[in-house]
Structure formats: structure tokens, C-alpha cells
Amino acid sequence: MTDRPGALATLAAHCGDQGVNILGLQIFPGVDVVTDELVVKVPEDWTEDRLVALVEGAGGGETTVRRCSAAALADGPSRFLQGVRRVLDDPSAITDTLADLLDCEIDDDPEETEEQESAEASSRDGAASLTVPIGDSAITVRRKAPFTGTEEARAKVFASVVTDLLADLATVMELPIEQARTAVEPPSKSEPVTRLAVPGDAMALVRMADRCSSKTLAGRFGTPLLGLQPRMARQILAEGATLVVEVGHEIVAMSTVTAGEPAQVALLVEDGWQGRGVGARLLALSARLAKAGGADELVLSSEYNSAAVPRLSAASGLSGRVRHVNGRVELIVSLRRVAPLLQSVEGQ
What is the pLDDT of residues 105-119, one digit of tens each? Predict the structure, then answer.
């Protein structure tokens, strides 16, 4: 329809006069014209041609009509989110899902020969096509109605998101099964090394999380998890200053200090390294790191292992007070007598 004030009101009035009920509406803006997608309920004796005539009589143009079910009433963003979930559950469904989201058909052979194209010209006359990159390949879909710029943008973002998520899952699934839930043991004559984390540690964090139990992960993240995806690991490293404990080429523990007043610290020690003093050392160094950032207090909280908090405080040599807040246990440590952590870590 022409993009002018009152155009949609005119269409609604025409529909009302003819007993056509508008159940749903999506608007796809353009430069000079607007594409409106309506879900309507018409009288039983109406045909597609009669509905086209009604819309064009109200000022609409290039009208396409097709029958639909109640599923068409779902809003666009919800449908695309459901599509992402469907693809994560079944990666092979990405092509069918994209076609469903765009209400179109899959072009199984977009690079057809001229003879084939000519033979199918009658069935494809006036059809619009859209090619969406999917990783190293692409999917081409067709339908009678033209694709709007908004639909094209949504399709490409959808493809990009699910491609990245599937790549992350594939990376996690490539971890050796025998490595899962198994503690990393230090090589001979090797001791755990504590250092500041770098962006390149993301995949080592993924592997460490895969060796952790769901209870251990819940103590760090506040909710049961089966592991970390690389994107989440990168986000953790970007949250604040992070310390890691490294054995050989693997990370077995980490702490993240988030600036603020008070500063917050979150610890994660894989199951096989718990009870070896790793967490206490990380907490002590995290306190010094927070002090270097200008904080006067540091808070450590836990929901799933409250008994460990006082023990960790005592083992780290930090004095603090414990309080219970909304089912969580918090350790508040004063940093007034804590020496700030400078550049190097190991040995301080």
C-alpha cells in the first residue's frame, strides 16, 4: 500500500463493511510503499479473488492471498525464536524451518539449466526468490509474494545466529568423551600456575566446565548447567578481571572480579581440584586484585554450597562476615588491610 496517513484505516473500514474480520497484522515498511500482512477471517462463501478485489478497492496493490491456519497469528519474533530452538534440537531442520518462517517453498536446484528454467517458467512466473547464506552454503526459497527488506534481514540474522550456535555446539561436542568429568593431573615436576586470563583462554574454560559436575557449575552460575559454550566463555572473560589456575595447558580453576563497591568475585574450581587449596588461593588473590581496582570490600556469594563459604574464608586467611540474603550465603571481606595485586601473580 502507499505509505500515507489513513491508508490502513481505509482498508480496515472496507473490511468491516464487507464482514471481513482482521485477526492479525504485521507491517513491513519500505521507502515509498508499505507491505502489510494481514490475517483475516472472511465469510464462508468468499473466494481468494473476491478478497483481492476488496483489498485493491481500498488502495492496495500487488495483493497475494493464501489460506492459513491459526499458527499464522503467532507474532514474528516469537516464530523466529521458536525456529532457533527447533534447529538447535535438529540441525537438519534448518532449511525447512527457514521456509516455514518465510511462508515459502525450498528451491532444491537454484542453479538449474536454461532448459529447466524455461520448462518451469509458467509455474514460476511472477515468483520471488531469496537466497540466504548458511555457513559455507546457501538456501534459496521462493514464493509468489515479494520478499520485503525486513523479511530478508530477519532471514539472514536467523541463519547467522543458528550457524554460530551450531558451530559452538559442534566445538563442545568434539571434546573427547573420556576427558569429561576427569580431573586434570599435573605433569611430573609441574605445579599449578596462577595467572591473569587472556582472551585466548576461552576454549580452555569450555573444557574445564565440561569436566565440572552440574552442582559445581550451579555454584558458580546460580543455575544448573551441562557446560559452557565458547560464546559464554568469552563473555565471562570480558566481565571483569579474571584469574586462572593452569596445570600444563589446561585451566582447572578461575575467579572473576567485577568492579564496583563492593566488588564481586565468582569462583569456579573443577571437581577434581577441590579441597587442594586452589579456591582459597584464588580468593586471596582476587581480594588483592579488587583492592588494586580501588574497592574497599569484596563479596563472594553462593546458593548451592553455603557451608563452603566460611571454610573458604578461613583457608584464604581473609577475615569477613557471613550473611544470608534471599536463600544465598554471602561473604563480605574488608580490603582495608589487603595489599593490592600488582602486575605479576604467581608468587605474590
Answer: 766 554 443 443 333
Shared domain check, 263 and 169:
no
Q: Total domain count for the chain?
A: 3
Do residues 330 and 311 share a domain?
A: yes
Range of the domain at 234: 189-334
Helix (H, G, I), strand (E, B) or coil at 24: strand
Using alpha carbons, list the distances in angstroms from residue 271 to 24, 173, 210, 268.
Answer: 53, 20, 11, 9
> Residue 181: inside a domain, yes or no?
no
Who wins on pLDDT, 193 or 306?
A: 193
Predicted TM-score (pTM) above 0.70: no
CB burial of residue 122 (10 Å; 0-12, 13-18, 19+) = exposed
The answer to whether 211 and 183 have CB atoms below 8 angstroms apart is: yes
Distance CA(28)–CA(34), nearest Å, equals 6
Let me know whether 217 and 141 are in one domain.
no
pLDDT value for 203:
92
Extract the C-alpha cell encoding 76.
Answer: 514474528
Q: Indicate whether 184 belongs to any domain.
A: no
Confidence band, pLDDT 50/70/90 cuts, at residue 221: confident
Do 322 and 232 share a structural domain?
A: yes
pLDDT of residue 320: 78
- Residue 24: phi and psi, rounded to 5, are -150, 155
Give the DSSP letter of residue 75: -
Shared-domain flag, residues 215 and 326 = yes
pLDDT band at residue 21, thresholds of 50, 70 and 90?
Answer: confident
